[in-house]
Structure formats: C-alpha cells, structure tokens
Amino acid sequence: MAKRTVSLLQLLLVVYGVCVPSSAQICRLLGQPALPLLSAQKDINIGAIFSFHKSALLKIQPFTSKPKPTTCGSFNSLRGFKYAQTLIFTIEEINNSTQLLPGVSLGYKIYDSCSSISQTVLSGMSLMNGYEETLSDTSCSRPPSGVYLFIIIIILFFIFLQISHFATCACLSNRKRFPSFFRTIPSDYYQSRALAQLVKHFGWTWVGTVRSRGDYGNNGIAAFEEAAKQEGICIEYSEAILSTDPKEQFLKTLEVIKKGTARVVLAFVAVGDFVPLLNVIAQHNITGIQWVGSESWITYRTFAETKEYSFLSGAVGFAIANAKLVGLREFLVNVHPNQEPNNELLKEFWETVFQCSFRSNSSGGCTGSEKLAELQNEYTDVSELRIVNKVYTAVYAIAHTLHNVLKDLRSSTSSSKGERPTPQKVLDYMRDVRFTVKTGEDIFFDVSGDPAAKYDLINWQPADDGSLQFKYVGFYDSSLPSEQCLRVIQEHMIWAGNSRQFPVSVCSESCTPGTRKAVQKGRPVCCYDCIPCAEGEINNETGKDKCVLKVVEFLSYTEIMGMVLCIFSFFGMLLTAIVSFLFYLHKETPIVRANNSELSFLLLFSLSLCFLCSLTFIGQPTEWSCMLRHTAFGITFVLCISCVLGKTIVVLMAFRATLPGSNVMKWFGPLQQRLSVVSLSLIQMIICVLWLTISPPFPYMNLSYYREKVILECNLGSALGFWAVLGYTGLLSILCFILAFLARNLPDNFNEAKFITFSMLIFCAVWITFIPAYVSSPGKFTVAVQIFAILASSFSLLFCIFAPKCYIILLKPEKNTKKQMMGKSSSKAL
C-alpha cells in the first residue's frame, strides 16, 4: 500500500536546524541529523521523542554523506524505555483492531532527547526533514511521508499537531502561543487549584512552599498562590531550588523551613531538584513537617524506598489517576535484543537491567538467556501506570483523529480531486475527538487542548519492610460539579511522623466567640491578635475580623411558637366570650341561676383576663411589660381561683341549707361571696404592690446562657416577690381543690363540685409541673412554658366548669328546669 501523506503546518525553527533559502530555493541542514533509536515503517508513522540517555556536550558537526547517531551520555532511563515500549504496544494494539483505522497500519520513529533541549530540537528536525543533505523548497515546509509528530517534552519550535503525555505547564494552554498543542496529562493549573482546595479542606491556613526554579515550579506555585488567596490561605515563605545550585543554597532553604512556624510545606518540585534538598534534610534529621507533594514526586518509588527519606512518611498529594493496561506487562517482559540484533538501544537496556555486558565473555557477560519476567524493577512494575497510561491515551488520540480524517476523506466528494484537509481542519478533528479507551477512561480535550483533570489523592504510609507505600485516600475530578470535585477519605490517613494526630498549621488560633481579629502590622492576614468584643457583641462568623451585636432572642409574635400561643390565647378569649353570651341569653334559666350566676359571670370575666394576660409575655420585654406580665398574671389568677372557691363554698352551704332547720345560707349570701372574692384578691394585690415597690421586674440581657446570642428576658427583680405571688395562688388552688373534693358526693343534679374538683386537679397538676420546667428551660422557652401553664389551666377551668352547663342549655333544654334541678336533691335530702 502506498504511503499516505498529510499536509502539515509550515515549520518555524529556533536555535538549531535553520532552513536557509538560496537563490536556487535550496535548504541545507546545519549539523548532523539525529537518527531514530527504534523505528518501524508503515503506512502512517508516528514520531516520538523520549529520554533514554544522560545529556552530553553536543557539537554541531558538518554534514557527511553517511549520517551517524549523535553522541549522548550513558543509558540511564528505564522509564523512558518503558514509555517507548508502551507506545509500540499501543500501536500494535491499534493495528490489530478491526474498528480503528481499518486497512491502515501505523508505524513509529522514536528518537532520543538525551535529556537535552538542544538534542530534542535536532530530533524534531530529523522527524520533519529526514536525512537528505540538500532539501528543496517544499522540503522545508513538509515532513517526511506519513509522519505525525508526537512530542514528549517541551520543544523549542512551533509545529503542527503536537501531543504530550508529560508536559504539565499551564503556559501551554495558551492557544495564541500554542494553537496546535494537545496533551493527555492535566495542566498544572488544575493541580495547583486542587492542592489549594486540599490544604483548605484540612484547615491549614499557614503553609510554606518550595518550588523548582523553572517553568514547572514557578507556574505551579503562582497558580497555587492565586487559588490559595481565594481560599484564605497564607504563604509564610516561598523557596526556589534547582539541582545545580550549590549546597549552601539548599542549607539556606533548610534554615528557612526550620525557622518557619508553618508545619505544612508544599513541595512543587521536579524529582531531580528535590533530591539535594532531601539529602540535606536527612543529614540534619528534620522531622515533624507535614509534606504536601505535587504529582512529579508524590508517587516516585525511589524516594519511598529510601529509608533515609522516612521523614516523608505521612506526605500527601495528588498523582495522575492510575490505570491498568491489560497485556502490557507480558509485552514488556517479551522485549529481547534478538528481536533487532543491530539495535544498540536494546543491548544497552539489557546490559543495564541485568548488569552485564555483551562485549564480555567472562562471568559478567550477557548470554541473552536472562528473563525479564523474573525481575522486579521500575520497568517490569505495572502497579503504577499513571504516566504510562498517558502515553497509551496519546497514541489513541492520534489514531482516532487519523481515523476521522481518513473517514472524512473517503466520504468526501473532493477526495477524488486529491484535495487534502487543511491544517486547521485537522486541528478541529483533534479538538473534537472523544473516545473511551479499554481502561474505561473517557478521553476528550477542552478548548485549550487539555484533558479533564483527574487525580488520585495519595498518602505515604509505612510498609512492613520499613519503606513507604502509596495509599489511595481520595480523588480530584475537575469534570464533576465544584462541590463534588474533591473527596478525601480522612479516616484512612497517616500524618507526619506516622502519627494519627491531625496536624495543625495556622499562624494564629481562631478567635473565640466574644473576641475579634486584629491583623498584626506587617504580617499576612492569617496572623492576628484576638481582641475582646464589648459586652453584648460577638465576632462575625465569616471573617471574625470585627465585632457585631449578638443576636437578641426573645419570644416574638412573628415566630411560629409565638403565633401558635397567640392563636390559642385568642381562641380561649373567643370561647369565653361565647359562653358569657350564652349564659347572658339564658340568665333566667335554673342552670344559670343555680350556684350564684353572679360568680359565674365574674369567673368568666376573670378567665378572659387570664387568656389576655398571656399575651403580655410575648414580644420584646420592656420595663412596663415586665411589671405588667407578672402582676397581671398573679392578680387575674387569684381573682379566678377566688370565684371558683366562692362557688365551691356556695355548693357546700346550699346543700346544708336544704336540710330541715338549717339557716347556714344567711352566713354566706351574695354579699359575703362578693366580700370573699374581693378580700382574697386584695391580698394578692398587696403582695404585687410590695413587689413592684421594693424590687420590680425589669428587662435584662442575659449574656451568660449562650455565648453566641443574647437572651432578652424579664428579670424577676425580687425572686421572693415572684414566689410569693405564685405561692399564694397555689395555696388558694389547693384549698379550693380540698373543698371541692369534700363536696363531690353531693346530689348530682345540684352538684358542681365534681367538675370543680376535676378542673382544680388539672390546674394544680399544670402548675406543679410548671416549676421544674420553668427553672430548667432556657431563654424564650422559659416564657413559652409560663404561657403554656396559663393557657392550660385557664382552658381546664373553662371546659370543666362551663362545658356541662352549655351542654344542657344547648342540647338538653328539657333538663334546664327547676323541678329537674331540685328533684334529685329533695329526694336524697328526705
């Protein structure tokens, strides 16, 4: 099948590999081109650049007729080799698929960056231009047949359709500067915001930061600081380090950490930059710091397996979400130098992992019979495929884009004319691509060419062998709603020093209620003193930076409890008025005239006052309302009980008067009844006057019961006065109950005593239970208990005494006769 070519955007090269047009429109390569270390030519080839060797001093060599590989240092990257084999594994998986790119085979050209930016540029040039010494004008703007660039690290040139599995710098999301850049790894912008949310979640408002002095660290910490400021987090210090710094610089950073008061340190550093600092910390035995790590090192197994770095125990941070790639390990361990005998990279890899040499025939020589499956190292370990999975998804992203491009070409009528898709069209295909890989992960890109940010929250915990292991304790997923993005399983976490004790890192402790923040001059807003608020004030709940008046609480007419009590009070008054009206209409009937109708109307009047006085307990207490509520309550209830007591005595006297020769009623006639009611009420009035004169009730702001609010209540003034009023009312009630109880067996037709007994029983029960409830109820509930007692006792008197009479008046009028009222009484008397 003929090689397919796809038009690419014109290359803009910087630093190395400049295309210099001549009068004959010929370009000439400057220097020696790089050669691919692993390659397989197919219909469409994917170019990739990984790091396999250490960097070495590169020289621009004159072009020779036979290209030679550029010299790098020694092989030192099992990780890079693993990435390369993952790319090959993925390509073979795609080639074996009947659904994706049917009839098209993918190949690859994998180059070495030698951990050097300049070598990366040369490798990119070789991908674009091939090995020709003299290039035509079109060669300068067109890559070799069928090559799609797969750029692995940040490269110093602008090229069409770049996709990275490892470049996390937030700067690459700028579509004006990098319109053709895509990546399968999340931007550090999301990681920085996730870290800020994590720190906020744990309540750490005072942290130190250490960063790599480069794009990764500078941009990452800048984004973190911006997010941290929004979350109310303060940065005590921000140190920058680089692996090439002298030891003095790392010692200086160590001193800053030691002198700092922040117990939490965020390390947004590359692995290579972090090693020298960790060594210095280990030498000085610095412990007790809660480390928060970025994805670059939080799952770096070498750190976890180094016992000198045990002070990292309890470290927490976000790692790229893990995945499981079925069949990958089998593919990795089947790699063998015999597959490509002339491939030096495979031999270097074999010599590195087995510590042998193909150039030696001694005991240290490689035989080729060694088995990778028996090794347990970074290359064969497939438990941590976080970045490897990004290589896997990047290849699939290119394959799906190619699939859509070719599908569109086949179905388009313009394809017969040989027209190719424009660069912008191919970019649109890449931007719109969406698919699900075998791991179950949905792959798509946003408008900036970034994927959804999905991280695993990792906690370093001690293993049985003394090393540290990575424990999954939560996740962050930017595709979820903001309130669900972060999830932390805190109960499974270990903190600094293998402790279960949750670390605290604040500049100043939170101000207690009743005090406010006062920012310390020249220090961040997280550092403050707590100044007491004035009496009746409390700090505001949001910032606690100012004192505000406490919430004032009292039983209000506008709240539900106040409304309900008001309704019952008005309902009681309405019922009392209806009974009074009914009695007035039937005032000449025997049942109303019996047992002194005058006392009945006076009792109804006093009950109306009882229902009415309950309203004085609702609303904001004032000087007048405090005096009125207690005195009105005492006087109206004594008036009410006096009337009931008078009716009870009348029942007893009336029954005695029916006996032959009895003249007892002349001693307790209407005049005596009135005098008894007035006298008994007058005693209560005197008690109330003395109370109001000596020490009256007054409005009082109770600040001691609740710290966060003020209870506005009526202080009794004199507790003796209150209990004297209540005691006198209780004494009359008990006397009334005893007399009614003694009269309970009098003739039925003429007997109110049993109804009075029942009403006074309820009355006394209510007020006996009132005392402990009144004493123990807080705030407005004290008032509510008192109103409930007033209403309950008033309703008991109204229903028990007057309901039976209303029943006869309305429903049994035939019994409302003098004969009916006196008949049974006469017969029993005889």
From TrEMBL:
Its main location: membrane. Belongs to the G-protein coupled receptor 3 family. TAS1R subfamily. The chain crosses the membrane at residues 147-173, 560-585, 597-619, 631-655, 675-694, 720-743, 755-775, 787-811. It comes from the Eukaryota. GO terms for molecular function: G protein-coupled receptor activity. Residues 1-24 form the signal peptide. GO terms for cellular component: plasma membrane. It is a multi-pass membrane protein. Keywords: Cell membrane, G-protein coupled receptor, Glycoprotein, Membrane, Receptor, Signal, Transducer, Transmembrane, Transmembrane helix. This is G-protein coupled receptors family 3 profile domain-containing protein. Residues 561-825 form the G-protein coupled receptors family 3 profile domain. The keyword Zinc does not apply. The keyword DNA damage does not apply. Pfam families: 7tm_3, ANF_receptor, NCD3G.
